[in-house]
Fold this protein.
Amino acid sequence: MKRILVTGAYGQIGTELIGVLRKKYGGENVIATGRKKPPEILTKDGPYYRLDILDENQLHTMLVDHDIDIIIHNASVLSATGERNPQLAYRTNVEGSYNILEAVRILNLDQALIPSSIAAFGPSTPQDNTPNDVIMRPTTMYGVTKVFVELLGEYYTKRYDLDFRSLRYPGVISSEALPGGGTTDYAVEIFYEALKNKKYTSFLAKDAMLPMMYMPDCLKCTVDLMEADASKLVHRSYNITAMSFTPEDIANEIKKHIPEFEIDYEPDFRQEIAETWPRSIDDSVAREEWGWTPDYDLTSMTKDMLEKLSKKLGVKY
């Protein structure tokens, strides 16, 4: 049974990923780590340890002490937060990822899965049906760091035969964990506000179309890529998506369930970031090489989100 260490375990993806991995691999075989005091969900079924990924000695000691085979490196400063503090984004995303790859190389671990993002693309990238292999010149620090991680990981694969894998996550929508400072956070916030206040002010323009994914699909593709047969992987970094929509699209879908819901638009600095990203993604390479296919579209996701959040918040709609 593989032993897996997840960094950034208290983040939007990590919080739910830990549960999925522990159910499949056993609680004692999935080590959750982070720099903050963890929520109870991360400690009830398995171990959680504080870890500073910039501390190489602490990282190596933890990997050896817990006999780790695979690292899923989720610790990252996201797009909007990264523009407020690009120096922090650089240190966390670049130096942290380098430390992970070096640890995997030195300790001869089985695999490093380090997520990338659609932020790795830029304004010179085709924005519709963006191919897997295309020019990538991002204009945000977050995007720059993700291009670096992809290229460095692929270098380590060629130079050291290290098994590096990466997913270019789109916006991720979750009914469990709150978003963590990204440009697509509105697509989670809108559901909470629709249920609680019946109105929402979007920080993106009504026609700002972006690739998105519901959390169950995000968890599915992460585990699927981790478990994929390495001999079938021609690429190492993969486009991944499930749907594309605008704030107006999701608002109209919510109105089918909550007719009185109202939305207005006050675009802020995140709109400028969104305008440099793809509107839709071609993920055919992931489908061909390891059989990726999503389960949710906008209609089914909206229905499920409203059902789960209404129970969570104790409100009816």
In short: The chain has two domains: 4-171+214-239, 174-211+244-279+296-313.
